[in-house]
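Forum: Protein Structure Q&A
Topic: Joint prediction for protein chains with partners

I've read a bunch of threads here and the consensus seems to be that you should model interacting components together rather than docking separate models afterwards. I'd like to see that in practice. Below is the full input, 858 residues plus whatever partners are listed. Could one of the regulars post the assembled result?
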Amino acid sequence: MTSRTLARIAVLLQALLVIVLILSACAPGAPTPTPQPAQQPAEQPQEEPTPTSPPEPTPTPKKERTVFRIAVGIDPDTLDPVATTTTTVGNMVDYVVETLVRIDRDGNIQPLLAESWEVSEDGLTVTFYLRQGVKFHDGTPFNAEAVKFNIERMLDPDVRVPIRTPYTPIERVEVVDEYTVRLYLKEPSAPLVSAFSWTTAGMISPASVEQFGNTYKNVQHPVGTGPYVFKERVKGERIVVEKFEDYWGEKPYYDVVEFRIVPEAATRESLLLAGQVDLIILPPAADIPALQQNPDVEVLLAPSDRTIFIAINNLDPVLKDKRVRQALNYAVDKQAIIDKVLFGAADLMDAPMAPSLFGYCPVGEYPYDPDKAKALLKEAGYESLELNFIAPTGRYVQDFQAAQAIAGYLAEVGINAPVSTMDWPSYVATIVAPPEENTTQLHYLGWAPAYLDASQQMLQFLSTYAPPNGLATSFYKNEQVDELILKAQKETDPEVRKELYCEASKIVWEEAPWIFLWVQRFPIVYSAKVTGVSYLPNEKFDALYARPK
Amino acid sequence: MSGFTRYLIQRLLAALLTLVGVATIVFLLLRLLPGDPARIIAGLLATNEEVERIRVQLGLDRPLPVQYVIFMTNLLQGDLGISARTNQPVLTEVMARLPATLKLAIVSTALASIFGITAGVLAATRRYSLFDYVASFGTLIGISMPVYWLGLLLIIVFAVKLRWLPAAGADKPASIVLPSLTLASFSVALIARMTRASMLEVLSQDYIRTARAKGLQERVIVFRHALQNAFIPILTVIGLQFGALLGGAVLTESVFGWPGIGLLLVDSIFARDYPVVQGTVLIFSALFILVNLVVDILYAYIDPRIHYG
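Posted by a regular:
Agreed with the consensus. Here's the joint model:
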């Protein structure tokens, strides 16, 4: 071998280096092409300050653009409002796209793009009176035609709309005048107006579905009426939105909001502690106590509508017995698990739904009482039991860990139920197996309605919604409960409707088709240098009007 | 046709066959996994009717052999299909992520090669010295340290405490420092160990003794006579490591929020996004085959005794 060979290797290494340089010039990942709406300034988002000086969103002079950075854990599958299924994706889309109504922090329905609405006496027509003078980001006026277009697109079977069902009672949409839209329903649907607060019903510019690389069936670049304009998306890395200068409502403080995609919870936490982002969701649960002690950050454990429970297979020969199911409920010290395993990020359930839902009323409690549990088991004829128990990992706050603690409590009353886990798609396939193939006895699950109404929650106790028809995976069946739920779905008098849900809840609670655990809180952590950060009660952060202190 | 050209054509044909095999295996393996892609995409709140509609849109309602024929036909036309999760062409999804992964793999391999070879040569020439022991111990740690743990440790030290470097993302030039160091830690150890062993073997050869007897400078002996001859196994390890880094960076990408193909693959597996998993694995395989081919060709450059054809 000669030095010529060595020289060749050197040349090759140099070639490698050149490739690296070329790649670094075009990486990370070419940003998806995002043509600019005409009225937007065509400059790039402001470079962040150098990492050595922790960036501060200070209201500094000379038009320096202010940036608010949020780290989330998931890379959105879609930014098309109708296709969204995940609250966090919805949360980001909400910056750009608005709905006719919105929910406030207490779960009440408030006007947004509709100033008011009316439901007819018979519940068969709903009329929305729209806000005037609103423009989409591409300059298209927001009016009744635009609403009609969006609702019809949402109902079009050719468009992928996973959460379409709440809107399917709509038969047709009528444009009454420029700012009035009337919906004719096939049958009364009490939660319909509430469903118009969910991101699926977000209003995008009708003109935009043929532009910006969008198609009618596949919108990648949402153009809405929101306070921020969609600017750029780098898949797997970030989504950037910019302030909409012609926004109809109160304008937000920050010029740019950047969503950073960071799957690892510990890394999100580090980003916040390093001052490289201003807000994160879902830090590692075990770090919540330390974060609460840290003066540089604020911790918000936001109440949510996600109930966490263990679905008991009500068809199982052993678990068919109500006493056994009640015994399971008495056997577990849920508060201790909330304190020690979830680090306070949950509240005990006192009804089969979260308190933020319309239709909620507190119906009871299953206090920790192992003796009572043993007595009930004995009454049912069991000294000890062997049950299978599965839980997902990483789907809900401390899910597998909490399940292990629960198994520990069950063991103390003579129920041996070791927990096993599997990946989410396999898990779902296992729990939705039809009754004859379904071998699960206990499974850990979370359920969060998309909008704050009991209707989607109570599906869990509707016998016709059991697999294979739906996802009421405890196979609970009670004819009286079925009747109450179906009646409530059509009832238009809110007071009567609430009563119906309340009554159904009492029966369900007493019959214990689940081990009722807790309502999960949604942890949001943000820099102590900013103020104006809040939450919505459906696992969303509300940082639209955040500003430096 | 020269021998080399014929060799190249043979290799490329073999690669094509391998890819068809990989495509078939991935196709089948994915379908053996439990889980319904349509349900996972639609979420728990969707009704069965909507899930069924999505299943039809994805073509998953057709019999398996039909799905396979469609997949292979499209593949041979260079069409990897549409992502079930994002509704975008698979090629678009993969190409959006590939540069980030390539960049990370190349930088890590370069780092690992520079440090690994240097450490290996030094350890071999100073056998049983303090440096040798320190290097051996260091490489042992490098091999056994979990990427996940090392990554978080680096983030805490360099981003949170010292505030020198970005903790995550890929938007700044400095962003690559921590992920590439993390990723290189394993390879550097492997390359150093291979270099040391290979060098020791060569250094004990007769011709090295002859060179020493001739009174050549030690530097010349080590770099010209020993390292060049010890280089083939080292290059093999580097090539294999580069291939592994392309596919094995999943954890690193996850810890650092690096928008590479590993993360895409994991997201797609968990969403049962068949087309993207198939496409990503195929592209991985193609790259891996390519890297191996390049390494084989490099052998002939390094060692004139090796000829193809």
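Chain A touches chain B through 75 residues (CB under 8 Å).
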